[in-house]
Amino acid sequence: MKIYEYQAKRFLARYGIRVQPGDVAETPDEVYRIAEQLGTDVVIKAQVHVGGRGKAGGIKLARTPEEAREKAEAILGMKIKGITVSKVLVLSAVDIESESYAGLVMDRRTKKPVFMVSPAGGIDIEQVAKETPEKILRYPVDPFFGLMPSKARELASFLYSDREQVKQAIPILSKLYRMFIENDCSLAEINPLVVDKEGVFWAVDAKINLDDNGLSRHPEFEQLRDTEVEAPQERAAREANLSYVKLDGNIACCVNGAGLAMTTMDVIKYYGGKPANFLDIGGSSNPEKVVNALKIIKTDPNVEVILFNIFGGITRCDDVAEGLKKAVLELNISSPVVVRLTGTNEEEARKILSTIGIRVYTSMDEAVKCAVALVGKEKR
Amino acid sequence: MSIIVDEGTKLLVQGITGRDGSFHTKQMLAYGTNVVAGVTPGKGGETVEGVPVFDNCREAVESTGANTSVLFVPAPFAPDAIFEAKEAGIKTIVCITEGIPTLDMSKLYWWLRFDSVTLIGPNSPGVISPGKSKVGILPSSIFKKGTVGVVSRSGTLTYEIVYNLTLAGFGQSTCIGIGGDQIIGTSFVDVLEMFARDDGTEAVVLIGEIGGTDEQDAAEYIKREFKKPVVAFIAGQTAPPGRRMGHAGAIISGSEGTAREKIEVLKSAGVPVAPIPSRIPELLKETVENH
Fold it and tell me: How confident is the model at residue B247, as a pLDDT?
């Protein structure tokens, strides 16, 4: 789960990493009041879950509260990579002397949390990795020992040549590691980690992703989720325990299992069609799940054909067929439905579906070809 | 021959009294798997499908000589269940449970490696050596005894591909779902190393998907030293970047992990990649003939 910069900075502050004073606002008037209270030059930053805010004009400096209000008017409501800005973070500006990078990511290759530091801060770390890889130090941390002081010193020494700065950076890195572990993060980065003209350290920008598998240990994190930016169908899917991603094609697909769902999209493309979505109904065979899946598919106006691809195992084909029958009748589905069923209780499923005139195939290829051929052809 | 599970597998089912645990115990017994014990804390002394239930793994192993365990334990309790199985001396652990916190997996991974315990999963459909033993939730009827090794990150996609193989007459030595999570106990390379040593495996089908670099590591290993023919399929060719596709593992980030990149790396290692699952059998036939 992604959280916003302002939320990430509250995590850092709780662990004693210094962040700029300020607050989050949703209207230009609130921005004015915050700027007035701060009484300094302020930075106004769009709060969105995508990168490239600065380039898109989503970060502005203002010298007076009036100017802050003006700049906020321009930022609030603007679109960054298709996402409308509804919140801004207003912070006291910092006089930057140097910028570096400090981040942690759970790495699937080394199976450890990997610490990454770079004296080239303030720019995208992936760009640094590509252009000047020698400026990044990567260190896989042993999950049992954690970040030992000797290693924290080594990392800090890679960032700074000044002894005093090294000394000050060590506890920041240790706190970042502790924050990462104690909150089940999958990513935590400070970029840039700024030293100002007085030699004070500031986490000027921060990004935290929380491990979805770790959320069960931190029920309070659920309130950090911004359900308003989620597409309504994706929220409905999450609440119904389905996994849905909207795409821009016209063949909706409903599949059991993520790998098979992705493959179904690939096969649709292979035979010249365009998938309208990724939708995994998971392993259980609850007919209600099928009804919920069709409710979500029905909200997509681009859908012309609905394709089911079910490989029965733990999922029983007849349960899916019951759900499908119920949904088609109750929800008044007008698009043609093509079904591929194989496996557990396949015969019973065929009988159920034949009563409502749905095409049933055993082969995935045949079902997909049929769905592709139906695009633009007919209504039920 | 086969790998990971075979006639010598004496299985302990952790979470045997639960809905999934008891259902799949019945299925595994019906397949001929030697299920010797179950564990559910507080339910020792009961039986499930005739299998004795113990309060803990240590008693189960001492009484029955179990050497392999399978987990049907809810995610919050699964790390402790894995820990307990290893402490009781189990050498192969198959974890069906999904949703285990990644940090716990990081610790378990290294702790199990330290004592050479094999962990399959988490979020795995299991392992089957057709005709010998089935450990997990794989649907028995689609498998056929033979000489093709199958290794996959997915569940139902594996069934789809095995179904195609069986229809085309290719039986399997062992099929392994290594799991869809970010940190898993056994990687493609680990399984390929086992297949390399297994006389009963003559060719391998590798089923990957977007996200991570496990397929790229496999390609490098195959190029360097794997002598048996391999064909592959990579799911998620049409997946948009930056979006999570159900599996925790299936997310493309940065330049790593796209299907295109994986397909290119595999092809340059001499591994033919099928564009769709139904083309795998013919590709396998050609590859074996030309090998």
Answer: 54
Judge if A258 and A354 occupy the same domain: yes
Closest residue in A to B109 (Cα) is A111
Same domain, A238 and A370: yes
pLDDT digits (tens, 9 = 90+) for A59-96: 999 999 999 999 999 999 999 988 899 999 999 999 99
Task: Give, in order, the Cα–Cα distances in Å from A246 to each of A278, A307, B274.
Answer: 6, 15, 26
Same domain, B77 and B186: no
Structural domain boundaries, residue B157 = 139-290
Check A270 against B102: CB less than 8 A apart.
Answer: no
Whether the CB-CB separation of B127 and B179 falls below 8 Å is answered with no
* Same domain assignment for residues A161 and A247: no
Lookup result for tokens 């795409």: A247
Number of domains in chain B: 2
**Is B247 a known active-site residue?**
yes
State how far the alpha carbon of B102 is from the alpha carbons of A216, A263, B75, B98, B188, in Å: 12, 26, 11, 11, 19
C-alpha distance from A213 to closest chain B C-alpha (Å): 5
Residues of A in contact with B76 (CB under 8 A): 216-217
Confidence band of A285 (pLDDT split at 50, 70, 90): low
pLDDT in tens, A10-20: 999 999 999 99
Would you place residue B252 in the very low, low, confident or very high pLDDT band (cuts 50, 70, 90)? very low
Interface test with B, best of A260, A316, A340 (most B CBs within 10 A): A260
Of the listed B219, B247, B250, B251, which one is catalytic?
Answer: B247
Q: Which of A4, A32, A101, A361 is catalytic?
A: A101
Name the H helices within B148-273: 156-167, 188-197, 214-225, 259-268
Query: What's the pLDDT score for residue A179?
Result: 98
Q: Do B157 and A257 touch (CB under 8 A)?
A: yes
Lowest mean pLDDT among A252-266, B32-46, B239-253: B239-253
Q: What CATH number is given to the structural domain containing B257?
A: 3.40.50.261
CATH of the domain at A253: 3.40.50.261
B37: enclosing H helix or E strand: strand B35-39
Contact A184 B101 (CB under 8 A): yes
Q: At A96, list the tokens.
A: 């930057």
For A78, the domain range is 21-92
ipTM over 0.90: yes
The residue-averaged pLDDT of B29-42 equals: 97
